[in-house]
């Protein structure tokens, strides 16, 4: 594998920093909420026997959501600091 792929892989597999920003309970709660919403949607569309919800992919989506929140906060803070220094 090339180094670009290794950095992408490590980015998606290393979520440990999220626990410094958000509690495990918050992450689990968001996962449970989305899981329930997805299952209710599938049931409402009569797709629960046709479509499988991949729990690992859903967890990655939740972790990606929280990662984006952290990155957005960093960028916003940088932008505010940059604007104030002008």
Can you tell me about this structure?
The chain has helices spanning 3-13, 18-21, 24-44, 55-85. With 86 residues, it is mostly helical. The N and C termini lie far apart (44 Å).
Condensed summary:
The chain is an all-alpha fold and 86 residues long.
Q: Count of DSSP helices?
A: 4
Overall pLDDT confidence: 80
Tell me, briefly, the overall form: elongated
- Which secondary-structure class do the elements indicate? mainly alpha
Ends: how far apart?
A: 44 Å
Estimate what percentage of residues fall within beta strands.
Answer: under 5%
Main sheet characteristics = none
**Low-confidence region ranges:** none
Number of strands: 0
Helix content: over 70%
Please tell me how large the radius of gyration is.
17 Å
Order of helical and strand elements: HHHH
Protein traits:
mainly alpha; 78% helix; 4 helices; 86 residues
Outline the secondary-structure elements.
Elements: H1 3-13, H2 18-21, H3 24-44, H4 55-85
Helix pairs in contact: 3-4
């Amino acid at each position: 594998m090339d180094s670009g792929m290794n950095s992408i892989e490590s980015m998606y597999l290393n979520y440990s920093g999220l626990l410094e920003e958000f509690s495990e309970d918050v992450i689990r709660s968001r996962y449970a909420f989305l899981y329930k919403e997805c299952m209710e949607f599938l049931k409402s569309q009569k797709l629960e026997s046709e479509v499988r919800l991949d729990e690992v992919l859903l967890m990655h989506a939740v972790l990606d959501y929280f990662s984006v929140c952290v990155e957005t906060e960093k960028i916003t803070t940088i932008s505010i600091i940059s604007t104030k220094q002008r």
